[in-house]
Design goal:
The protein is an alpha/beta fold. It is 36% helix and 19% strand. The protein has one domain: 3-Layer(aba) Sandwich (Rossmann fold), CATH 3.40.50. The protein contains 7 helices and 7 strands; from the N terminus they run βαβαββααβαβαβα. Strands 1, 2, 3, 4, 5, 6 and 7 form a 7-stranded mixed sheet that branches. Helix 1 packs across helix 7.
């Protein structure tokens, strides 16, 4: 009797599409591993003035994440653009609402990785990746990055770090994902799926 496929959640926030492009590449890496499916989800924007409202279903792209997506997944790739060296407020807002999962230990032991996109090459990529790791560690997830056995990590001039996949989008967000960043994003998704498979004994 065959086992059901593993579900790897790719959860991200993207304002102009650069982080979404990375998310789609990570999903491609996940689905290159037999028995693994990617589930793409996003989060709605928030307002600095008052509580923002958004339709239940986004105008385009994947649906908004629910706590059930985290509870049901076998692993997580978490992505956000950088905001002054930190994850964007909508993603932080989402994680601030996950206390019930923390109390239940629902994410403990699940593998997780992070990714980001920045407007400038030295615009806080690594600190943003580290900021996204913090809630995952508090939830007991098994956080990992990219090893230097990925050759693009030594040659890239456009993004990518041992902490996770990154993309330099440029000030106006016009830079396409470079070949090196593309390969590293796919590798991160593949590594997530392979790790989840080993943990599940598949």
């Amino acid at each position: 009797m065959s086992r059901p496929n593993l579900t790897l959640l790719v959860l991200y926030y993207s304002r102009h599409g650069s982080t979404r492009a990375l998310a789609e590449l990570i999903a491609q890496g996940i689905e290159s591993v037999p028995g693994c499916d990617a589930r793409l989800r996003t989060v709605p924007p928030v307002s600095t003035v008052a509580e923002a409202t958004a339709p239940d279903i986004p105008d385009s792209g994947p649906p908004y994440a629910e706590l059930a997506d985290l509870q049901e997944c076998d692993g997580l790739a978490l992505g956000s653009p950088t905001r002054f060296g930190n994850m964007a407020a909508p993603m932080k807002y989402f994680w601030d609402g996950t206390s019930s999962l923390w109390l239940a230990g629902a994410l403990a032991g699940k593998p997780a990785c992070v990714f980001t996109s920045t407007g400038s090459l030295h615009g806080g990529q690594e600190t943003t990746l580290l900021s996204m790791m913090l809630p995952l560690l508090h939830h007991g997830m098994l956080v990992f990055g990219l090893p230097y056995t990925e050759p693009e990590l030594m040659t890239t001039a456009s993004g990518g770090a041992p902490y996770g996949a990154t993309h330099w989008s440029g000030v106006n967000g016009n830079n396409a994902v470079s070949p090196d960043s593309r390969m590293l994003a796919i590798a991160l998704g593949r590594r997530l799926a392979e790790t989840a498979s080993r943990l599940k004994g598949q």
